[in-house]
């Protein structure tokens, strides 16, 4: 007869450490946001699709619209499927950092094009924003080579994590770009008040400053996890706990920046 005080041995996929359990819950929230955003933007996406022109911003919008949910659906399978072996994970783990680097590159290109456009399409601004974008693309591409499989027990999920804290420059490069675009967008909007005075609330909504600020904020929060919070061990995925949500929200707000443009999207659109 078994002793009533004997501990029940849970399978590995149920016996999760606290940070891994939190990451699974947070990833469910990420998938929910991605699905909801895809649903909510459907009418506006359809209206944009029906326009005859196909400028770069429109093509980028539809790419983000399809690529983001596809990426995180695949990542979700790897994360939650208890049948994934360590061997399969070793062949797959670079999928998320590489796909997210592509996602960020397109999002950042949208931001750069819009800043260039609202500053009257001046060539110096194009060079400056292009240099920031190229820096981000190079840094994220290099950093993809410095990820590894998080050493979890089989059945607990497949997660890619950095080999060292400095790999966080992957996200730092994007955060620098989004900081610059936020500052430049605010400066341009404030300058427009010299022509016509409106309330700051209307100014924010008119120029989509809340969208630029949201992108900056989620990326800054991500920076806290990468560079301030210390993992308890090699199996602790705390550094990457919010990266998926950051990528999804960055994509979501960037698509709204495109939809916020009044008039044509040719050559990045214009200033309101």
Give descriptors for this structure.
elongated, mainly alpha, Rhopdopsin 7-helix transmembrane proteins, 10 helices, 272 residues
Task: Describe this protein's structure.
The chain is mainly alpha-helical and 272 residues long. It has one domain: Rhopdopsin 7-helix transmembrane proteins (Up-down Bundle), CATH 1.20.1070. Helices cover 65% and strands 2% of the residues. It has helices spanning 18-40, 42-50, 56-80, 86-92, 95-118, 123-143, 169-192, 200-207, 209-227, 243-259, and strands at residues 147-149, 160-162. It has a two-stranded antiparallel sheet with strand order 1-2. Helix 3 runs antiparallel to helix 5 (95-118), helix 5 (95-118) packs parallel to helix 7 (169-192) and helix 9 (209-227) runs antiparallel to helix 10 (243-259). The longest helix has 25 residues, at 56-80. The radius of gyration is 21 Å and the shape is elongated. Keywords: Membrane, Transmembrane, Transmembrane helix. This is Transmembrane protein. The chain crosses the membrane at residues 25-42, 63-80, 92-113, 125-149, 169-188, 209-229, 241-259.
How are the secondary structure elements laid out?
Elements: H1 18-40, H2 42-50, H3 56-80, H4 86-92, H5 95-118, H6 123-143, E1 147-149, E2 160-162, H7 169-192, H8 200-207, H9 209-227, H10 243-259
Antiparallel strand pairs: 1-2
Helix pairs in contact: 1-3, 1-10, 3-5, 3-10, 5-6, 5-7, 5-10, 6-7, 7-9, 9-10
Transmembrane segments: 25-42, 63-80, 92-113, 125-149, 169-188, 209-229, 241-259
Keywords: Membrane, Transmembrane, Transmembrane helix
Protein name: Transmembrane protein
